[in-house]
Design a protein that fits this description.
The chain is built from eight helices and nine strands. The protein has a three-stranded mixed beta sheet with strand order 8-1-9. The chain has a two-stranded antiparallel ribbon with strand order 2-3. By secondary structure, it is of the alpha+beta class. Strand 2 (about 45-50) and strand 3 (about 50-55) form a beta hairpin. Mean pLDDT is about 85; it is low at about 205-215. The protein starts with a strand and ends with a helix. It has two domains: about 5-205, Alpha-Beta Plaits; about 210-259.
């Protein structure tokens, strides 16, 4: 199966909340509209200066959350979704700290808290169906399909309507690319999107940093050995000087008695 993606066209969103209601129904979450992502709201509509912005997990191509999870509770599937298995979760919250988009939410009110986030309805996708949120959208503000085709559609809209869109597809290259892409008529930064985020997959940056550890440790070891050698050498020199001084004093005393 080819990698899938969602295109969220912010210019078409009317803020009806149908996506959130469908998501809650699909995942058995408590009813009620929420304005911020939470452990009971995997997708929300945030209003920014009169613009409706749908938020959900970005489903990164190289998810940092999966790379830091010590128990494999988060995994990237071959067809796009970054899935989460609550039964494996130990509640360490590493994923929350690692996510560049601050998506995972913690069950603070639960006696046995875990993390929660959107799974992009991976079971529906596996059955050839779109995510519930996309299916429920009445205006086509969210569409679903093969990632390559979704990108082509996004470029087509920008090309044919240059005055309607910012000339940029958010998510195409952020942190190595995501499976949730955005089009907007206003700058993404003004809508709360991170615009200074790395274009490189964050797990690769971590790997690059970790790969330098052996050489750093070696260099540090050499340095520390040098400090140890110099310190001990100074002690040895001091002891030798003390012995020589003692021998000189002993020789002087011996000469006095001899006279």
């Amino acid at each position: 199966m080819k990698k899938k993606a969602i295109l969220v066209d912010i210019t078409k969103c009317i803020g009806c909340g149908a996506c959130q209601l469908a998501c809650k129904a699909k995942n058995g979450l408590p009813e009620g509209e929420e304005q911020k992502l939470s452990s009971t709201a995997y997708t929300v509509i945030e209003e920014k200066d009169g613009v409706n912005v749908r938020r959900l997990c970005m489903h990164c191509e190289s998810p940092t959350c999966a790379s830091v999870c010590p128990v494999g509770a988060i995994q990237k599937t071959s067809y796009g979704p970054v899935v989460y298995t609550p039964d494996k979760c130990i509640g360490c919250r590493y994923c929350m700290q690692a996510c560049p988009f601050q998506v995972p939410r913690y069950e603070w009110d639960n006696s046995t808290p875990k993390m929660q986030k959107c799974n992009l309805c991976y079971d529906r996708i596996a059955d050839g169906l779109p995510p519930a949120c996309v299916e429920a959208c009445p205006t086509g503000a969210s569409i679903f399909g093969d990632r390559d085709e979704i990108l082509q559609e996004a470029r087509r809209r920008i090309h044919e309507n240059p005055d309607q869109y910012v000339q940029y597809i958010y998510g195409e290259s952020e942190v190595g690319g995501t499976s949730v892409l955005y089009l907007s008529s206003v700058p993404f930064g003004s809508l709360g999107f991170k615009t200074d985020i790395s274009k490189e997959p964050l797990p690769m940056l971590t790997l690059e940093a970790l790969s330098k550890i052996p050489s750093v440790v070696f260099a540090g070891g050499v340095f520390l050995y040098g400090v140890w050698w110099i310190t001990n050498r100074r002690k040895e020199v001091r002891k030798l000087e003390e012995r020589l001084k003692a021998m000189e004093d002993e020789e002087e005393t011996h000469q006095k008695f001899k006279v």
